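User: For my dataset I need records formatted as: sequence, then structure tokens, nothing else. Please produce one.
Assistant:
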Amino acid sequence: MLLSRLADTRIALADTRSRNAKRDIIAAVLREASRDDVEIVVSYLAGSLRQRRTGVGWKSLQNIPSPAVESSLTVSEVDAVFSCVASLSGVGSTAARATAVNALLARATADEQDLLRGLVFGELRQGAMEAAVQEGLAAAFDVPVAAVRRAAMLMSSTTAAAAVLLAGGLEALQAVGLQVGVGIQPMLAASAPGPDAALDKTGLPAVADYKLDGVRVQVHRAGQEVRIFTRSLDDITTRLPEVVAVARALPHDQLVLDGEGSHCAATVAPKPSRSWRPAR
């Protein structure tokens, strides 16, 4: 699939506020994509590169080349370039990254350059968001959106859920379960003026927790192996040796903890740790 198809899609998504229209636009693109491109397309429509870290900074993209007149880049070519860039390290790697990305941008049209810069820095304002991409993915492959969302939550990635769906269909999506060591997308909070208003939104049963200031963390333990994730699923295990020690001291060798600051509770799914949210 040409990158220009996604650049045009980005503009179309930004031009509509209808959630159903966004779903249909996304579904149409995914139906056109080859099986090899679907994962890349899902990631780009959700607003991020498949490579979590590329090492490309603002400074290296301050002076970008003039845009190309005609579209020629494919999404697979772009993905391959960023995979190469992400693998670079050592002396001279910063310059090599800048050279590779600028060469890529030189082949991109103006709209494609805007798309690529937004993907690099995670600053696309296309109104798609991950939830809409999940709806589009479900529509494109005729599966329940709840199955897509559940798999994406447990695998920490809509792109990963798309790969499972491609490989095994709905049955494979439904077979996805909690895996110790794989970050789980956290449930996010919604505000309400008070408990009565909150319960009007959520219904019963519901769970209320104290809101503590601190860092939202998710702790996974498998034997003596401990991994700690932030709300954005960055691995910060090495930064919290005290939490690692506490996790290893617990009388269980397989667990997932989710909480705010020092407020953690064992769970088998992402348990809310904000006030006035429905129980899972």
